[in-house]
Design brief:
By secondary structure, this protein is mainly beta. The chain contains 7 helices and 48 strands. It has a 22-stranded antiparallel barrel. A 5-stranded mixed beta sheet has the order 3-2-5-6-10, with no helix packed on it.
Length: 770
Amino acid sequence: MRLGVSLLFLLLTASASAQTLTGRVVDATTQEALPGANVAVLGPDGALLAGAATDLDGAYAIEGLAPGAYRVRATFVGYQARTQTDVVIQRSRPTFLLFELREAIAEGEEVVVTAGFFDDEPDAPVSVAALGPEEIRRTPGGLNDVSRSLLALPGVASGVDNRNDLLVRGGGPSENAYFVDGIEVPQINHFATQGATGGAVGLLNVDFIREATFYTGGFPARYGDAASSVLLIENRPGSPETLAGDFTVGASESALSLDGSSGPDFNWTFSARRSYLQFLFQLLDLPIRPAYWDFQSRVEYTPTQKDRLVYFGLWAVDDFDIVQPEGDDFENQEIASRVADNDQRSYTQGVSWRRLVPGGFFTTAVSRSFQEFRFADRDEAGDPLLSNDAEEAAWRLRTDGDLRLAPGLTLGVGGGASRETIDSEFFQRATPATPFDEDVQFGTDLGLWKGFGYGQLTARALGGRLALTGGLRADATDFLDESVVLSPRASASYDVSERVQASAALGRFTQSPELISLAVQEDGEYVNRGLRWIDVTQLVGGLAVTPRPSLKVSLEGYYKDYADYPVSASDPRLSLANLGGDFGFVGAEPLTSEGVGRAYGVELSAQKKLTSRWYGVGAYTLGWSEFTGADGVYRPSAWDVRHNLSLTGGVRLGPWEVGTRLTVQSGRPFTPFDLEASAEEYALSRRGVRDLDRIGAERTPAYARWDLRVDRRFAIGSRLNGVVYLDVQNVLDRENVFALEYTEDPAEPDFLREQTNVGRLPTVGFSLEF
C-alpha cells in the first residue's frame, strides 16, 4: 500500500521534461567544455531529425523527440567526430548522453577529422571494449548482470551457469579489478569467493550504467594489482528537473530505483533490490535457500565550472540457509551435507573530486571497503570441519592526473596508498580432501600498507595515424619480503589506411597476494610473508578492420607468461591457478611462490553497432592455459577452454526487440577422483577426493547453450514507460555437464554423479519507468 501511494505521488509530481535528449560535449583529455559543438539526432537512414549546439558549459538539450532508439552524432572544429548508437528516448525521463571528443591532429596544413562508431583509446590500443547501457540490459541470459554481458567479448569465458566468474585469456577469477565512478570496488558480486572476484550474481544496478569499459589485457599504467583484466563502470547522473524512477520485477528479484536533481548543480540516484531466490529454490525442492539485498547510491555536486564531487555507495547483504531434506532423496541429502553455510556483508563508499586545471584535470578519490565472511561446515557427526569468520577492510586514497603537454602529446600521472586489514578466526580440519596433513587454525588481526605511483606518456603523430605510449608503474607494500615491484608498459597503434589499424602492446603486470593468504599463521608467525607478487608479462598484437563505420572486425593474438604464482606448500602438484571458481574461499594455507604458467591464444571478433534494426557481436577464441605446481610440471589449468565461440545479435522492430546468444565451448579440464581416499572422506563430509597425480587429466563434454530474449516496450499516458520481457536460457534444454562428483548413491554404481548446468529456464519480467 505504501509503495503504491509513493509511486502515485511520483507520477503526479513528475515534470513533463521527458522525450528530451540532454548531455554535454567535452574534450576527452582535459574534460573542458566544448561550446558551440554540434549535436545531431539521426534517423535509421542517417537523415538529420533534430539538432542543437552546446552552450558555454558544453551542455545541450534537444526536445520534442518521439520515444524510440536513435543514433546521435557530435562534431566540433578540430576534433574527431563521434557517433553513439542505441540511444533510447523515453517518456519517463530525459536521456543523458556525454560525448568526449578527441583532438584531431594536423598533418602539414591539413587537419584530419574522422568519424566513427567505435571510440579509440590511444593509451590502450589493444584488448579494450566499451558497452553501452542498452547492450548490457538486453543481453539474452544476462540476468541484468554486467559480468554475464561481458561473456560476449573475445577472450572471456565463463565458469559454470550458477556463477559469473570472468575467466580472461586463461587467467583465473582472482585476476580482475573493478572501478565504479573512479572508486575501486573489491567485489561486485553476491556470495563472493573470498580470495577471488567471482560470485553468484552481480550486485551493480545496470539501469544506472552509462558506459562499461573492459580491458582484457595491455591496460594502461594507471591500473595495477590485477594480472588479467580491469572493468571500469561509469554511471549516469540523476534526471534533471524531475523525479524519476523504475520498478522492476524479475523471476528471482524485484528492485526500485529512484533518481532526480535539485537544481543544475546537484543530482542523485538510489536503488534497492531484494531477491526471492529462496522461494524459487524451495519451489524446486532444493535444500539451499540463498537470499540477498543490495543498495546503490550516487550523488553528484558541481559547485563550480572546474570542480565536480561524486559520492558512490554500494551495500550488500547475503544470507544462505540450508534445510535438511526430508525423505530418502539421496541427491538432496548430499547437497545439504556438502554445501557450507555462507553469509556475507559488504559495502564500498567513496568520494571523488575532479578539478580542472590548465591543459587537463586531476581526480582525487578516497574510499572505504568492507567485507564480512562467515563460512561454516560440519561433518556427518556434527563436529566442525570448517569455521572461517573474517572481516576484510581497506581505506584507499588515489590521485590521477591527465594533462595535454602539447598537441598530440598527453601525460598521465598519479599515485595512491591504501591501508588494508583482515581480522580472521580460522579453522579447517585436515581430512583426506585437504592438501595439508595437520589442521590449519589461526586467529589474526593483520594490517598492512600498500602504495603505488605511475607515469605514462602518449604521443600521436602522422596526422593521428600513429600513437605511441610508454609508461612505468611502481607498487609497494610494507608486509611482503618483496616490498617493491616495477611494471614497465608500452603500446603502439598505426592506421595502415582509413579502415585498417595495426596495434601491439608489451608490459609487465603484477598482483599482490590475497589478504586471506597473508593472514595464515603457524605458531604465531605469518608463514606467507615470503610470497612474491604474481608476475605476468603480456604480449598482445592485433589488426582491426572497419569495412563500414558501424562494423568492426578484429584479430588479436596474446601471450601471457606467469611467474611467482602461489602454490601449495604442502603438495608440490597443486597451484592456486586451478582454484577460485567455486563458492567459499581460496588460499587459506601455507603457500610458496614457486609456480609458473603460460596462457596464449588468438581471438577473432566482429561487432555490428545498431544503426537501423540489426546489431550483433561475434567472438571466437582459441586458447591454452597451463600452470605448474612447485614440481615444475605443466598441467592444463581449470580455465583451459581451448575453443570458445559466442554469437550475440538481435533485431529491433518498432517497440519489439528480439535478441539471441549462442555459446559453444570445448570441454574444460577436471581432475578424476581417488576412489579409496574418497570413500574415507565421504564418511565425513559426503565429498570425494581428487587424484592429484592426474590434475586436469580428463575433460567434461563440450558446452553449448542457446539463449533467447524478447522485449516489448510500451507507453502509458504521457509520462510512463514499460518494458515486458521473456528471457529463455538454454532454449534447447541441452544437458551441459560441468563436473563429476563422487557419490555413494546406489543409483550411481560407478560412484560418479554428473553435475549439469542450467536446463531450459524461461523467465518473465517487467519494468515500469516513471
